[in-house]
Amino acid sequence: MSAPRRALVTGGASPIGAAICRRLAAAGCAVIVHAHAAAPAARALAGEIGGEVLLADLTDASASRAVLDATLAAGPVQIIVHNAGIHDDVPLAGMDFARWKHVIDVSLNGFYAAVQPLLLPMMATRWGRIMALSSVSAALGNRGQSNYAAAKAGLEGAVRSLAREVASRGITVNAVAPGVIESPAIARVLDPASIKALVPAGRAGRPEEVADLIAFLASDRAGYITGQTIAINGGMA
Predict the structure, then answer these.
(1) Which residue of 37, 46, 57, 121 has the fewest C-beta atoms within 10 A of its own C-beta?
(2) According to the 3-state scheme, what is the secondary structure of the chain?
(3) Is 224 a catalytic residue?
(4) Could you tell me how far CA 131 lies from the centroid of its own chain?
(5) In this structure, are residues 77 and 121 in contact, taking their beta carbons and an 8 Å threshold?
(6) Rounded mean pLDDT of the chain?
(7) Dihedral, CA of residue 106, residue 41, residue 79 and residue 225, to nearest 10
(8) CB–CB of 152/177 below 8 Å?
(9) What is the dihedral of CA 27, 125, 82, 203, to 10 degrees?
(10) What are phi and psi of 154, to 5 degrees?
(11) Which CATH code is given to the segment(s) 6-232?
(12) CA angle 126–49–45, rounded 5-degree value
């Protein structure tokens, strides 16, 4: 019996990240729950699903590489879900460079920090799945989110290019772009009436719905889907 495929989920303790970790574990993957600030939640989740924890600040590429190199001692990681990302919203006219840079460092530069060290060992297995969580903001824009939208649009460009580089090695690379998804952060800024007015489907999505899409893209059945951005937003775009 072959060993389970190892799957790294960055930002694995967030609402969407945790749903992805649970869904991949249910599919038989050996899940690595990445966290930085949310280490206690990541440890609790890893204990729940029988996974392991990886603690790294993805804005520090050299330190992240050292942690990932150590992880590779247990074998290649064949599934990567780059879910780590942050908001720091303010109109560009009032946005200082630190706010601009930090959002891009986590979402976009974090993709490099998480994926690049794992790529050659994955390629050697001739099978892999790489997914990056983008956002409807990359397509539509959103007031106060020029930094966030730029980071997510950059991720989509990186996905398209990387997909071309690794397709011949049996590796797919895709972006998944959620819209309004249930979370404590969304509940603080949007009431149900606002969500109904904003989303044609009339409701927020559930983290489990995003996780189901990720699990499909991570499966053998999705081997001919690559270089795509797949929206899951209830008809917003």
Answers:
(1) 37
(2) CCCCCEEEEECCCCHHHHHHHHHHHHCCCEEEEEECCCHHHHHHHHHHHCCEEEECCCCCHHHHHHHHHHHHHHCCCCEEEECCCCCCCCCHHHCCHHHHHHHHHHHHHHHHHHHHHHHHHHHHHCCEEEEEECCHHHHHCCCCCHHHHHHHHHHHHHHHHHHHHHHHHCEEEEEEEECCECCHHHHHHCCHHHHHHHCCCCCCECHHHHHHHHHHHCCHHHCCCCCCEEEECCCCC
(3) no
(4) 6
(5) yes
(6) 96
(7) -70
(8) yes
(9) -40
(10) -60, -40
(11) 3.40.50.720
(12) 110
143, two tokens:
């007031």
Q: 123 CB contacts (<8 Å, ≥6 apart)?
A: 166, 169, 171
Q: Pick the catalytic residue: 51, 148, 218, 234?
A: 148
Closest listed residue to residue 129, CA positions, set 95, 79, 92: 79
Q: Is the pLDDT of residue 237 over 90?
A: no
Positive or negative CA dihedral for 134, 137, 141, 143?
Answer: negative
Kindly report, residue by residue over 88-143, the tens digit of the pLDDT. Answer: 999 999 999 999 999 999 999 999 999 999 999 999 999 999 999 999 999 999 99
Q: What type of residue is 189?
A: V
- Check: CB of residue 157 under 8 Å from CB of residue 201: no
Identify residue 129 by its one-letter amino acid code: R
Distance in angstroms (rounded) separating the CA atoms of residues 191 and 4: 41
Query: Token pair for residue 234?
Result: 């209830």
pLDDT in tens, 33-48: 999 999 999 999 999 9
